[in-house]
Design goal:
Family: Belongs to the class-II aminoacyl-tRNA synthetase family. Phe-tRNA synthetase alpha subunit type 1 subfamily.
Largest sheet: 7 strands, mixed
Bound molecules: 3,4-dihydroxyphenylalanine
CATH superfamily of the largest domain: Bira Bifunctional Protein, Domain 2
Helix content: 25-40%
Order of helices and strands: HHHHHEEHEHEEHEEEEEHEHH
CATH architecture of the largest domain: 2-Layer Sandwich
Strand content: 15-25%
Protein name: Phenylalanine--tRNA ligase alpha subunit
Number of strands: 11
Subcellular location: Cytoplasm
Oligomer: single chain
CATH class of the largest domain: Alpha Beta
Subunit structure: Tetramer of two alpha and two beta subunits.
EC number: 6.1.1.20
Radius of gyration: 45 Å
Length: about 375
Amino acid sequence: MSGPNTDYDPVEVAAVSPAELEAARDAALAAIAAATDLEQLKAVRTDHAGDRSPLALANREIGALPPQARKEAGQRVGQARGAVSKALAARQEVLEAEHEARILVEEAVDVTLPTDHDPVGGRHPLTTGAELIADIFVAMGWEVAEGPVIEAEWLNFDALNLGPDHPARTMQDTFWTEPADHHVVLRTHTSPVQARTMLTRGVSDGAPIYVVCPGRVFRTDEYDATHSPMFHQVEGLAIDEGISMAHLKGTLDHFATQMFGEGITTRFRPSYFPFTEPSAEVDLICFVCRGVGHDDTGQCRTCRGEGWIEWGGCGIVNPRVLQACGVDSERYSGFAFGMGIDRTLMFRHGLEDLRTLFEGDVRFTTAFGSEL
Ligand code: DAH
């Protein structure tokens, strides 16, 4: 067992000499004061207060001193280390505060600056509405057909049993294109797509026709809250063997329920269209008052107390139309219907002014943008 070191020579323990200790402490304090950011302070801490720093080495050497020298040396080293760690903590606090203040300035976001991102648009309710209608019919196995908006007079009128002198021609105020002897119009309804479908697809090969045709139509109407010279219709046409009014009623009831909700069905009122015989106006149970005509606060504003809303026209395709379009009217029969899409959307979304659908205000469109 080794005894205490009696040959101790204090001169050999240089690191704890007061001068060196002071020099180490002063160097540490100067480095701390000179550190201008937290990174630098971290390095200073390692160099001057870390395990291998002169002050740490001095501290370790205390243990090697003879007992009588330890107390005094311990005090001096302890004071020097205390001063350094106090200075480190103080500097740390100052630099952290500076760092945070700088981040607040450098990383500040000016939320009032104009954005350079293109705003996300919304799909127009007429687009999504026409798709919704098409989907309802596609789900029943129908196809979607489209036709041109600039249409031959013959397809818009004559083929549909509206001959040149037919009084019903004046039911639809027509935009004619020039020169007049070309007999081309802006289509006044989507019904010419019926004629086109029968002429191009035919049922002569035995395949029945079930098509739905959404599209844009034109009439010389005023532009106001309920009229527009351009609007949208959806046409339906079913040609098969044994088609009856019952199929028409069932189809439109299904359409109404899908569009407006459970319990919303239709009623037919006798009417006249040259292309259908018999013909009917289709009304929809008012989906706001559900046919009652009023609620606790008074008359229903949507149907004006009627309990029903006019929705469109329909009927059994006139055999003369079938014949004009090359369909064997002895063998086949069919039904057809036509509704205003804009009107349908006005009911569905409670729009008061038709013009909101056409004026292209994105604030209107985006409100519907996420509707599928
Ligand atoms: N084409 C008619 C209109 O615009 C609407 C219509 C009525 C279409 C009866 C039809 C129908 O197919 O059968 O006023």
